[in-house]
TrEMBL record:
It is a multi-pass membrane protein. One of its GO terms (cellular component) is membrane. Keywords: Cell membrane, Disulfide bond, Heme biosynthesis, Iron, Membrane, Metal-binding, Oxidoreductase, Transmembrane, Transmembrane helix. It is found in: Membrane. Pathway: Porphyrin-containing compound metabolism. GO terms for biological process: heme A biosynthetic process. This is Cytochrome c oxidase subunit I. Its main location: membrane. GO terms for molecular function: metal ion binding; oxidoreductase activity.
């Protein structure tokens, strides 16, 4: 199939995914359909992040080793001959029927998000122009930024496949997905009603921003653990190989530009390098947890932030519990996916907190 026909068929599948979301928005009792569309897109993005984690953790990232289609076709059914041949040659390899479907479903869902974001851009422009460019909540700046960002995310999705799961590319792909979720959360917050927030919330602006930065760094470390398959490099907890500071190879572990499982020189990555990756993620998690817990505790003491503070604290406790259980239970798939999902939830809640602590200042300015 030629590229234009393939892209058309893939776009059709993305539109079908988006149509389901549009149906939810249209049938909603919420009178503000634009706000509902933003929230539904946010929810779908959260789901795609979790499904992306499932794709990565089931080693399905190369289930279809080309892009954007699957052996030049728009779905695995049409490529079954090629998939069966690859599976017969390597039964435990990256290409199987199940892995091909997982990979392509992930692509269909991602395309659906792209269609929804295009709809958000069009509607925001329409509402903004109709309001005489006076209603800032409909400003197209954020939606246009979302569109540009989802295009960038799609490019890294393609490079993830064409560059054969190179760890730095896969990690950036994960970070861009989390950033897209954060941006959608900010847009959704602009469309939503918020309780009155006490002016003391202004004191949390800097701490909340630091919490988001630390969380982003920890997610990057977590992505580096996952993309290097270092989740089981330390099989015990709280120690690692029975000691507080095990033997580690930071030089090879944190060389960013290299192939999967290899050093920059092309040799196999030593186990000490995987230990260094895992240990760093684990230790930095303590720093992030303490800071976010402190920020959430302060939010609990401020009028209008109690609810978000409780949610953030609860998500943090859940994430720590899942992280420990993932190691203790030897990395069960469901818990590993949930660990990624809870990280996305922390991003959502931390971004929402950052928005809320700016409400008093915005109200005074208007």
């Amino acid at each position: 199939m030629d590229n234009s026909g393939l892209l058309f068929q893939l776009a059709t599948k993305g539109i079908l995914v988006a149509l389901l979301a549009f149906l939810i928005v249209w049938s909603s009792k919420d009178r503000n359909k634009y706000r509902k569309l933003v929230w539904v897109t946010l929810f779908l993005t959260f789901d795609v992040i979790m499904f992306g984690a499932f794709t990565r953790l089931t080693d399905s990232g190369l289930g279809c080793p080309d892009w954007p289609g699957c052996y030049g076709h728009s779905n695995p059914l049409q490529a079954m001959e090629h998939i069966r041949a690859a599976e017969a040659a390597m039964p435990d390899g990256p290409v199987t029927v199940m892995k091909a479907w997982i990979e392509m479903i992930h692509r269909y869902l991602a395309m659906g998000i792209g269609v929804l974001i295009i709809a958000i851009v069009v509607i925001s422009w329409r509402f903004w122009l109709r309001s005489g460019r006076t209603q800032s909540q409909f400003s197209p700046r954020f939606p246009v930024a979302l569109f540009l960002f989802v295009c960038l995310q799609g490019a890294f999705g393609a490079w993830t496949v064409t560059m054969k799961l190179q760890p730095i590319i896969v990690t950036i792909h994960l970070l861009l997905g989390m950033t897209l979720l954060a941006m959608l959360t900010w847009v959704a917050a602009r469309q939503s009603d918020h309780p009155v927030v006490d002016r003391t919330a202004l004191r949390l602006r800097v701490p909340a921003c630091i919490a988001l930065i630390l969380l982003a760094m920890q997610i990057a470390l977590g992505g580096w653990v996952s993309t290097n398959y270092a989740a089981l490099a330390c099989m015990d907890f709280p120690l690692c190989h029975g000691t507080l500071v095990p033997q580690m190879d930071f030089q090879h572990g944190f060389t960013l530009w290299r192939s999967l499982g290899k050093t920059a020189d092309g040799d196999y990555l030593p186990f000490e390098a995987l230990t260094a990756i895992h240990w760093t993620h684990r230790v930095f998690a303590f720093v992030v947890a303490v800071w976010i817990a402190w920020v959430a505790w302060r939010a609990l003491r401020i009028q209008g932030l109690q609810r978000i503070g409780r949610a953030l604290l609860g998500a943090l406790v859940l994430q720590i519990t899942i992280g420990i259980a993932t190691v203790s239970l030897k990395w069960p798939l469901a818990l590993a996916v949930a660990h990624n999902g809870c990280a996305a939830l922390l991003v959502l809640l931390t971004v929402m907190l950052n928005y809320k602590v700016r409400i008093p200042g915005r109200l005074d300015e208007n």
